[in-house]
Amino acid sequence: MARPSIVPIALTLDDRTGYTLWAPPWEEDGEEWQAFLGTTEGDTAKVHLFPTPAALAAYCRTSTDHDLADHPVWPVVVGLGPEDLTPDDDHRYDLDGVYDIAAENPDRWAVEELAATIDIVTRLADCLDTAGDEDDEDDDETQFEAVAELAAKPEIGSLGLGVDAFVGRSGEDAWVGVGGVLDDLWEDVVAELDEHFDWTGAGSATLDDYPAASEVEDVDPDDLPEDVVVVDDDEPAGATPVSSIARGGRLNASAAEVAQAATFWEAVGILPVEIVVPDGAGVTLRCYVEDVARFLGRDGEVFLFDTPEQLARFCKGNEEHDLAEIASWPEVADTDVRPLPADQDRYDLTELSEVLAEVADGAAGLVDHQAFAQPVEGVRDLAEYAGLRRVEALLSPGEPLGRAVVHGESHPTAPLRQEDAGELRRQWDEVVGEISGALVFRD
Q: In whole angstroms, what is the distance from residue 259 CA to residue 47 CA?
């Protein structure tokens, strides 16, 4: 069971985006709990939605009449500002966009996005359903019949298997089946949910306070109200009350652009990668040859470029490098598709160091071992390609850092201890230093 936490999320419905809080499942007094920021009036449970993170932060500072007031982490949330309560891309759920996603090719982004949206919908229904209270005689009664029917469909269940479930002829049929289920049920699903969405922010807002989601995408940020927080893809705000560290990436692309580009890059088997180290951030390319990582580089050095455009220009040139012999390289050299890394292929090696520093300074219990997962994945690939034996040694089970990584693989939600964080940060900084020495920033 994960440690108690509270995560800001955004829900878009009927061209409005509302901000609220979600407490993922946690265990207390031997029972499992899950909740959203809301209240119950009579037989109707409501989720409070706010037009901006600033409005959400103001409510959190002043109100205790809601379902999260007794949550173990609530005292931390009360002191957070709009930047800390702005959801990251992984916690933004566009209920209006489900049909568009289902109409796309079933690439990794589309499958994960659709699965995440349906998952949050079922969690909302579970928390908002008061028909199964103890006083009700029929335990099977539900206020969310369409949601229950949707979740029970085997076509929807296949989303949990990931993109591999939609490969080949049978996979194409499975994806069509997902779209068919959504055509039949999605309108009823969102209608059921909307009855439980409080778009007034517990009486603090009106519908006129919500800018149209479709218009916000195109408006000049300087023209927005001061309390509207704009999140760029290259600089997402913190998704948890642990830290509001901004990423060092320089990418300027929307999630839709990244998803569209991923169709080409996944097809050629060579993926764009972003790496952030203290010296700066850059993009490169990576593939696997017999499960061994190979990067755009030469003699163990990885070439990094400030922007996708600079990387693309290099790919069209004739300089020798270790990807030139890959069978699909001519397609890469000839394409005009921007090399835009997906979120899972972006490795910020500096962020983990700062998180470990926070734990050492007293944030123990608010950061768990899964913080190692993504940066260590990137580091292992880089060290393998560059032949960095010292990195491999530091990540071995015989070292404190290696033991923490191994523990995180089996117990990802176990919290990091304050007394361990100082040594873990020292060793991680040594790893990052070794990695930095193998990176060559190119013009």
A: 30
pTM to 2 decimals? Answer: 0.53
Q: What residues make up the domain containing 369?
A: 242-443
Q: In the listed set 144, 164, 198, which residue is the last one of a domain according to the structure?
A: 198
Residues 266 and 406 in one domain: yes
203 lies in a domain?
A: no
What's the confidence (pLDDT) of residue 416? 86
Q: What is the pLDDT of residues 115-150, one digit of tens each?
A: 999 999 999 999 999 876 555 455 567 889 999 999
- How many domains does the structure of the chain reveal? 2
Q: Looking at the predicted structure, is the pLDDT value of residue 239 above 80?
A: no
Residue 246 is predicted with a pLDDT of 28
Domain identity same for 394 and 304: yes
pLDDT in tens, 327-358: 999 999 999 999 999 988 999 999 899 889 88
Higher pLDDT, residue 89 or 254: 89
